[in-house]
Amino acid sequence: MLDKPISPLLQRVIDDMTARRFKEKVQQDYARHVGRFTAFLGRSPDTATSEDVRLFQLHLAKQPFGAPTINAAIAALRFLFNVTLERPELARPLTTVHKPRRAPVVLNQDEMIRLLEAAPGIKYKAAFGVAYGAGLRVSEVVALKVSDIDSKRMTLRVEQGKGQRDRYVMLSPQLLEWLRDWWRAARPQGWLFPGQNQVNPMSARQLSRAVHAAAHEAGIAKRVSPHTLRHSFATHLLEQGVDIRVIQVLLGHAKLETTALYTRVAINTIRVVTSPLDKLGLTPIDPTPPSD
């Protein structure tokens, strides 16, 4: 998994993660952060003290790292101390960093049409359609297999999405037609969207580059990524009046509060809310200035 030789302790960490069936990317991230902690100490982490842990967290806070990177490092160290080293007293003081919740970037329907029409080929148009028409994450789009399409039940099966959970999402008639057009053109056998090497799926980076190129071609000034299509899916459903709990299930969110973020950008939903001021029945303000 790592190019450099690894220490016996780091191998134990990797073995513990493997035993718990952690995904390869998670294992790589944890191993990298444990390695960073080891470099900071200048010795093996099994000799760490509470003061060492405190100083390392202070060191992280002073670096130009974003909250996700720092929190990933904290999660890696908690695993190291709680599981591999069985020293939970070192993990207790570790605290995560608050990540500011920003309103997601959302495309309006006109922008969405322009983006889809600017897709560089039928393969990417179908992939864009999956991201927007079913609300999938970019990692879930590229991991789809041909066998995940169920045209009788009109569903797509998302296998081992975020949190290692399977779920089913809607398959719209329009999206089904695009997927059929793509299948007739390329006849993919395993992966629905194979990469240049047919053995592997298209990479998330490859799909991201295609989205960026299409947004530029469509003249969209907003910062657009594959996740923008997922954001737009959720927001447009909310504006259509779909229950937020249904949207939560479709998106695969574990917590409703995560889905509720889209209420901040669902303009149509905001517009139909009646202000309590309008319920007071007050008369309009007289524009005539008072006489002296």
| Basic shape | globular
Helix/strand order, N-terminal first:
HHHHHHHHEEEHHHHHH
The rounded Rg comes to 25 Å
Number of strand elements: 3
Extract low-pLDDT stretches.
Answer: none
Number of helices: 14
Helix coverage percent of residues? 40-55%
Query: Beta-sheet strand percentage?
Result: under 5%
Provide mean pLDDT, rounded: 87
| Class based on secondary structure composition and strand pairing | mainly alpha
The first-to-last residue Cα distance is 85 Å
Instruction: Describe the largest sheet.
Output: 3 strands, antiparallel
User: Taking strands numbered 1, 2, ... along the chain, how are they ordered across the largest sheet?
Assistant: 1-2-3
At a glance:
By secondary structure, the chain is mainly alpha-helical.
What does the model show?
- There is one protein chain.
- The chain has 292 residues and is mostly helical.
- It contains 14 helices and 3 strands.
- It has a 3-stranded antiparallel β-sheet.
- α6 (109-117) packs across α10.
Short key terms for the protein model shown above:
14 helices; three-stranded antiparallel β-sheet; 51% helix; mainly alpha; 292 residues; single chain
